[in-house]
C-alpha cells in the first residue's frame, strides 16, 4: 500500500526542527487537515473576508496577499495547504493514485474554497476601477505604486534576521542589475502571447507565498499588468485561463523550492528580493508614464504634478509602514 508522503516538512533534512529568529527551537506545525477546517457559516465568512483582503492586495503592486495572510494569522495554514496540493500533483505524476487521493482529501477544502471565493471576488470587483485609473491617471497611480513598493522594501528589510555586509552587497548588486536590465525592456507588452501570459502567471503566483512581495508588482515588471487587469475587467477568458494555468503550474513547481530556500537561506533570499524591489522602482517612476504604469523611461518631474504626486507616494509609503506596525502588533499578541 502506498503511503502519503508530505510535500515537505519544516525540518532541516530530518535533523530536527529549525531554530526561529531568536534561536529557539520550535516544533514544526501540523500538516493541513480536515480537523482544522472551518465548519460554521461565520467561519466560512471570516475566511472569505480574509480572502477578499488578499485579493485586494494582490491586484495592487506593492501590497502582497501573503502579507495579509500573515497579519490575519492564516499564513501557515495557507502554506500547508499549498504544499499538500503540490504533493497531490507529485504523487499523480509518479502514478501513486491511492496516495494522491488520500492527500487530496486531507486538504482543507472548506478553508481553500472560502479563501478563493474572497480572492476572486475582490479581483472581479476592483479590476474595472483599476483599469480606468490606469488609463486616466497613470502618473498618480505610478506614484502610489512607487510608495507602496518602497514601503514594502522597509518591511522586508525588517524580516532579515542577521543583517550583514554580504546581504547589503547582494541587495545592491541585484538592485543595480535590475535597474539597468529594465532599461532594455520595452515596458508594457501591448498584446502578450498566451505562452508569455502562462509564464508570467507561473512567476507572479509565487508572490502569494512570500509576504512583502506583490504578484501584481511582478506582472508590472514583466510588462503585462495592464493587459491582465484589462482582461479581468472585460472577462476575456483566453488570457485569464493562460495566467491561471501558469499560476497552478508555478505554485506546484516552486512552492517547495521557495520553502526550502527560505528555510536554508532566509536572509540571502530576502536581501535579493529587496534589491529586486528597489531596482524595479525604475518602472514605477511617475514620469513620463507615456505608455502607462510600467514604463521604464525616466524623465524629469512635471512641476504641476509634483505636489499631488509626491503626496500620494509619501502617503502610500506611510500606509505600508502602518500596516507593517499592525502586523508586528498582531504577531506580538498571538
Question: How would you describe the overall organization of this protein?
Answer:
This protein has one domain. It is globular and about 65 Å long. It has 13 helices and no strands. By secondary structure, it is mainly α. The protein is 66% helix and 0% strand. The longest helix is centred in the middle third of the chain and has 28 residues, at 109-136. Helix 5 (109-136) packs across helix 10, helix 6 (138-158) runs parallel beside helix 13 and helix 8 (194-204) crosses helix 9.
Query: What number is the mean pLDDT?
Result: 78
Low-confidence stretches: 1-31
Outline the biggest β-sheet: none
Structural class: mainly alpha
Radius of gyration: 20 Å
**In one word, what is the shape?**
globular
What is the N-to-C succession of helices and strands?
HHHHHHHHHHHHH
The number of E-state strands comes to 0
Distance between the termini: 41 Å
Helical segment count:
13
Helical proportion, percent range: 55-70%
SS strand fraction: under 5%
For the structure shown, list the relevant keywords.
334 residues; disordered N terminus; 13 helices; 66% helix; mainly alpha
SSE blueprint and pairings:
Blueprint: H1 41-58, H2 65-71, H3 75-93, H4 97-106, H5 109-136, H6 138-158, H7 165-182, H8 194-204, H9 215-221, H10 225-234, H11 237-264, H12 266-280, H13 306-333
In short:
The protein has 334 residues and is mainly alpha-helical. The protein contains 13 helices and no strands.
Amino acid at each position: 500500500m502506498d503511503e502519503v508522503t508530505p510535500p515537505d516538512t519544516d525540518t532541516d533534512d530530518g535533523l530536527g526542527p529549525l531554530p526561529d529568529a531568536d534561536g529557539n527551537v520550535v516544533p514544526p506545525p501540523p500538516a493541513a487537515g480536515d480537523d482544522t477546517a472551518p465548519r460554521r457559516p461565520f467561519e466560512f465568512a471570516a475566511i472569505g473576508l480574509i480572502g477578499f483582503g488578499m485579493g485586494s492586495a494582490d491586484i495592487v503592486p506593492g501590497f502582497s496577499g501573503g502579507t495579509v495572510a500573515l497579519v490575519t494569522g492564516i499564513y501557515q495554514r495557507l502554506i500547508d495547504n499549498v504544499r499538500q496540493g503540490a504533493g497531490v500533483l507529485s504523487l499523480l505524476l509518479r502514478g501513486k493514485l491511492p496516495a494522491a487521493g488520500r492527500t487530496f482529501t486531507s486538504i482543507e477544502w472548506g478553508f481553500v474554497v472560502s479563501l478563493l471565493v474572497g480572492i476572486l471576488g475582490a479581483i472581479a470587483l476592483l479590476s474595472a476601477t483599476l483599469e480606468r485609473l490606469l488609463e486616466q491617471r497613470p502618473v498618480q497611480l505610478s506614484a502610489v505604486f512607487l510608495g507602496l513598493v518602497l514601503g514594502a522594501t522597509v518591511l522586508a528589510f525588517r524580516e532579515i534576521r542577521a543583517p550583514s555586509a554580504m546581504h547589503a552587497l547582494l541587495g545592491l548588486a541585484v538592485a543595480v542589475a535590475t535597474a539597468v536590465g529594465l532599461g532594455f525592456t520595452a515596458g508594457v507588452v501591448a498584446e502578450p502571447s498566451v505562452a508569455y501570459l502562462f509564464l508570467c502567471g507561473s512567476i507572479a503566483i509565487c508572490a502569494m507565498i512570500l509576504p512583502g512581495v506583490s504578484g501584481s508588482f511582478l506582472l508590472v515588471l514583466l510588462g503585462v499588468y495592464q493587459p491582465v487587469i484589462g482582461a479581468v475587467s472585460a472577462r476575456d477568458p483566453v488570457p485569464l485561463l493562460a495566467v491561471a494555468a501558469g499560476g497552478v503550474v508555478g505554485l506546484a513547481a516552486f512552492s517547495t523550492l521557495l520553502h526550502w530556500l527560505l528555510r536554508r537561506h532566509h536572509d540571502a533570499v530576502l536581501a535579493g528580493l529587496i534589491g529586486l524591489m528597489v531596482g524595479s522602482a525604475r518602472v514605477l517612476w511617475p514620469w513620463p508614464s507615456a505608455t502607462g504604469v510600467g514604463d521604464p523611461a525616466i524623465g524629469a518631474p512635471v512641476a504641476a504634478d509634483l505636489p499631488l504626486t509626491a503626496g500620494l507616494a509619501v502617503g502610500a509609503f506611510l500606509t505600508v509602514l502602518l500596516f507593517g506596525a499592525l502586523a508586528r502588533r498582531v504577531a506580538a499578541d498571538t
